[in-house]
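Re: that chain you flagged

S.,

Sorry for the slow reply, it's been a week of failed gels. I finally had a moment to sit down with the sequence you sent. For the record, here it is as I used it:
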Amino acid sequence: MTRLTTEWLTPIQGAMAEWDQKLVSLTGHNLAALACRACGSTENMAAGKKAAVIPITSGEGVIGRFAESVAAILRTIGMDAAVTDTTDVTGLYEAVNKDVDLVFMADDDRYIALSLKTGKVGENDLCTALGYRQLLIECNRLRNGDSLKGKPVLLMGYGRVGHIMYRLLKEIGTEVTVFDKDPEKQAELARDDIPQIRDRKKIGEFRLIVDLTNEGDWLDREWLQNEVIMAAPGVPLSLHPEDAADFTERVIHDDLEIGTAVMAMKALGDRA
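Prediction finished late last night. Pasting the structure tokens below so you have them in one place:
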């Protein structure tokens, strides 16, 4: 899991309503509806439920604004969410005594939502992949009026989340090609007979892209088609900052929102 920074997270709390409306314009669904669909449901299972976000101090410690940002996202999808006054195990104890439905917590390696009622878990790697697959499905449907079945999709980045995304995209019948600059990943793809490209300029041959690289400021606009749809959960955004403004309706990126919303639905009892 990429370690987020306070700088990236600070804008989230004040921009959730704007982000929610942007998703509607791009996909036809707000954040809650998109997360539900990613989990195989049309019912907002989060509405009215209580959540506690527990700051965790292990490893490199608490990231500034992380817990507050998570709570803001959860309130946007209809939850009664707050950050616990205490941290770690004491924070979990506090949440249990407040009879919450879900607790959210993250350390250096894993970010999860846990249902205190059923024991179900929503884990961020899987939920980010589910959420961004649904985002690509809905964006393509709204713009092109068809499904992703049989469509060529470029998956950039074959790390922890990339492996999950590859499987999820294959499940819905897409023709997936992978780009990863790491020679070890390239060798793994070759061993598994997975189509890949190694020349960055070939990125421009694809109109549908999922970007799961975690390196910012390396992707030039000349490598992207004008009609591209790029679902980009990789943090930080790969596209050069000066070029990102030209693709605001084509490159959809967030730092935390979609994965967190899907985690809530997953832990509350998804149908996917």
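What I noticed first: The mean pLDDT is 90.

Talk soon,
D.
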